[in-house]
Amino acid sequence: MKELEHKEMEVYDSIMDTIGDTPLVRLHSIARDLPCDILVKVEFFNPGGSIKDRIGPAIIQEAEESGRLQPGGTIVEATSGNTGVGLAIAAAIKGYRTIFVMPDKMSQEKILLLRAFGARVVVTPTAVEPEDPRSYYSVANQLVAETPNAFLADQYQNPQNPQAHLESTGPEIWRQTRGRITHFITGMGTGGTITGAGRYLKAQNPRVKIVGVDAVGSILYELHRSGKYIQAEGYKVEGIGEDFLPGTTDLSVVDEIVQVNDKESLLMTRRLVREEGIFCGGSSGSAVIGAIKYTREHNLGPDDVVVVILPDSGDRYLSKVFDDDWMRENGFLERAWIDFRANDVQSAKPDQEVITAVPHDLLTDVVALMKKYNISQLPVLDDDGRLLGIVTEIDLLNHMLQEDHGRHDRNETIAAIVEQNVPVVRPNTPLETLMGIFSQHNAVIIATPDDKVEGILTKIDILDFLSTQV
Prior knowledge:
By secondary structure, this protein is an alpha/beta fold. The chain has 3 domains: 15-50 and 159-333, Rossmann fold (3-Layer(aba) Sandwich), CATH 3.40.50.1100; 56-152, Rossmann fold (3-Layer(aba) Sandwich), CATH 3.40.50; 336-467, Roll (CBS-domain). It is built from 16 helices and 15 strands. It has a 6-stranded mixed beta sheet with strand order 1-2-10-7-8-9, sandwiched between helices. Helix 4 links the parallel strand 4 and strand 5 (120-124). The longest helix is centred in the middle third of the chain and has 17 residues, at 160-176.
């Protein structure tokens, strides 16, 4: 007790002092079939619940120092919600008023959250051009002109946006990975995160790949790929994608951009919650599915360390991505997916027996086993009955046809051709999760948390099951 009395209390002077130093978390279930390390930087650990907390204080401080923001002034910003919160936190402490302009596709939770900080929220139509006087960019500029002592934060042009990530996000990632990061992947909206953190990481190691994720319907993917502007189209995911090139986006920092659509983004978001316990928002799902696409396309290996930004929390999207009715109404969720689990599909199979193999089984015996039971893949277990991987008929065929094998020893085992990167789900995994997995794989294994195999499912098993539910 006396020792404690002589020590300093562990107290932050302001809530703003808690911004940053968010954790890196390794993905397991979702990345089980990938050979590389997939690490997510969980930005909802910031006090305002998103990565945008990093830029709010920086923008306000620079505006104060330059004289553009005077005491008692009003901060105006066009925002999808999260930047507004980051600004509102600093504004509450420093005594500024706030007005935020949001497109009407944003969730009600974000509007209510900003109003909780005492902000005035103006909602504008989404489906208009940036130059349209009704767009949220134009309305924000109009409000600045009409409001005495007003300051436009302008996250789309303000250099403090990428600078904040160059000074915080990038260095944190470099330190947390001990410089082992090989790929940095993040969604692109204003471009501040990818530009600032990307510049820092490239300065430390020019070989680090900087990869953006863009929504189908946004212009950024095509602009980076071909240098051409296209007509933007509507999409549901919030916080990423643009219909113009923000001044805070430096495409020269970006090595590649991956496109993702609404459905795969939102289904991945739900998987992150249900399989990894990470309660994140829709753009987090976009970033992760984009990272998985990139990882597969570029054949990343065990020496690769991929860091993916998860921008915000799922509590801002309860009425959208986590609402089954909203998901169904927008065509992202089939009614039959709602109530069924992996073990329901397995239980409905005519033959419940799970045929397995062990690494020391003879190759010829495994081929005979597949022929006998008319199956194309077998889970491979260790001597304690725990899952090691899978062996498939295509892998067996490729192995048999390899030129350097020519003649195969009849005593050859399957040990050398067991594929360890296999998708594994738990018995209670929702059918919607299985559908997402089957977009990339032909089979998944059902296993308990201690890797005891309870079944194996293929696309035809899902089709058979769904046909009985019609």
